[in-house]
UniProtKB/TrEMBL annotation:
It comes from the Bacteria. The lineage of its organism: Bacteria, Bacillati, Bacillota, Bacilli, Bacillales. The chain crosses the membrane at residues 6-23, 123-141, 147-169, 196-223. This is Peptidase. Keywords: Membrane, Transmembrane, Transmembrane helix. It comes from Melghirimyces algeriensis. InterPro entries: Zn_peptidase_2.
């Protein structure tokens, strides 16, 4: 089998994994959003408690529209929780809230991977925006220099995704430990927390794998064009 065709098949398989991972995270969130946490605390209450316990009294907690739109904003130093998380006392809600607080704690402690990610963001944002146009233009015009530049910029965007992995895994690890230590969950509830956080982590792994395979495919196309 031609290696370019083989890589294309791998890319399609990885794309399928991305779609499956997205369905899984939504399914896990929906399932465990129906299970009330024994602590009875809402996502907001858990977030506020974690932040205060770690001396982050100046970090705000705000609701944001949508579902699975939860994130930590390092610029305004705000944990933003989707409304289903902010107001709910479910396993899903407190798991997500704890995870986002994990990012706020990383920021306070200047966690290495997070610092690197923040520094890479402006360049990665620019690169991911322009790389597709250079890649497509290079292929259509048969301009190898243009295509090569597109590959370099795309590689920057992929590197950003790779750096994101330890940031997300570390935030989830912190969240689990905090939830157990603070008594937000009981032992039998750890399974649900794991399901929610692992499903979310899988989406990052799948997306990164897809991006890496795409990068390798572009490199092979570039090398074959020079033959």
């Amino acid at each position: 089998m031609n290696i370019n065709l083989f890589m294309l098949l791998l890319v399609f398989a990885a794309f399928g994994l991305v779609i499956w991972a997205q369905f899984r995270v939504k399914g896990s969130f929906k399932k465990w959003s129906k299970v009330r946490a024994s602590s009875g605390m809402t996502g907001y209450e858990v977030a506020r408690r974690i932040l205060d316990d770690h001396g982050l009294h100046d970090v705000g907690v705000e609701p944001v529209r949508g579902q699975l739109t939860d994130h930590y904003d390092p610029i305004t130093r705000t944990v933003r929780l989707s409304e289903p998380v902010y107001h709910s006392d479910s396993i899903s809600a407190i798991s997500v809230a704890s995870h986002e607080c994990g990012h706020a704690i990383q920021h306070k402690e200047a966690y290495g991977a997070l610092v690197l990610r923040h520094r890479m963001f402006p360049v990665s944002n620019f690169a991911s925006g322009i790389a597709p146009f250079l890649l497509i233009g290079g292929l259509l015009l048969g301009a190898s220099d243009l295509f090569g530049l597109g590959i370099l910029l795309y590689a920057v965007a992929v590197a950003f995704q790779v750096v994101t992995l330890p940031v997300e895994f570390n935030a989830s690890s912190r969240a689990r430990a905090i939830m157990v230590n603070e008594g937000f969950i009981r032992n039998e509830e750890e399974r649900g927390v794991g399901k929610v956080l692992n499903a979310a982590a899988l989406t990052y792994v799948a997306s990164t794998l897809y991006a890496l395979l795409e990068l390798f495919r572009f490199v092979l196309l570039f090398l074959s064009s020079d033959e």
